[in-house]
Amino acid sequence: MSMLIPLILVSLGVAATFLALFVWAVRSGQYEDTCTPSMRMLLEEPPLQPKEPVPGSPNTSSPALRSSAQVLETATNINSNHTEQNSPERVPMKSPSSNRSLLPSVALAFAALTFNASTAPAAEAAADWKEHAISPVANPLFFESPLIQSEVRPIFIYHGIDNKFIGGFARVFAAELRYAVTERLAIIATKDGFIQLRPNVGALRADGWADIGVGLKYALIDNPEHQFILTPGLKIELPSGHERVFQGNGKGEIDVFVSAMKGWDKFHTTASLGGRVPVDFDAETSSIHYSLQFDYYTCQYFIPFIGANGQTVLSEAKGPAFGGIEGFDLINFGASDAGGFTQIALATGFRSRVCKRADIGFAYEKGVTTPKGLFDDRFTMDFIVRF
Predict the structure, then answer these.
(1) Where is the domain boundary, 127, 145, 179?
(2) Residue 86: inside a domain, yes or no?
């Protein structure tokens, strides 16, 4: 057990090295232009510098349009040179071969216009794909959206506890904060709030504050053309909560995760995978968590989704035994007999985009594995305000 922490640190160091190399490769510019290399063989002259756009003229800021403009300008130069060389001052008569020499430039210009017309709408559609994408509602603590946004997200959770465990319910009032430092990097605060624990066992009823969790996420891959984004991240949970609501135990934990989203116009798939690594393995269990969501943008006010969220305990701690049961996302009992315990809940709900910068969301989750332990069912409601 004492070797786990050094191994984890070495693994994180290797991952950070590869991340730094990938970021360097991306910022070097080799992935920015996916259009020009395929058309460069058509140009007989060195690539021309793009001219400043004239008001009212087509936008040539994208690589596809910029390449088309270069091809057209090259074709125009070829025609101009050909006209000068065959002007009456030099050659009094045109030969049939001179007419044939115009064909390549005309064909080249026509191909550029066709390519321009076919790729411009696709480029615009790809650039707007995130406008229809939504953040997950269910499992708000560990199902992190891969999107980089600045937002405030108040959350209310009503959580039903299985009657075969201790029964009753719990209420959580919380707020999450995300701040986009750049277009790819965001600071996140995803765990906090006030817990009202109301089990059927009177001695366990209590109110208290939850632990605080903060971290970073970085959009490693953001490809509008393929409507895909991949965002790894890291969160640290501080044991700042009250022990009477099963918070504040141990020395905190580290959550390493990666989230991804793939879009097909109005349909999106979002997934997340991560590992919870406690600082003190004697006080808290380690586990992996995984989430999946499918959503479809029917209209601004109704974006339905279905999904699933799960957790599997990897290592046991030295805390009390709960019949092979461990907490789900909010609570880590540090159970001594929960190794291999898996809990999965199915989710459904919807989001409504009340305006461009505000969403409301509702989700219902139902535990489907046995024993259910803490998780019988859950209602989650949130309100997102982007800034």
Answers:
(1) 127
(2) yes
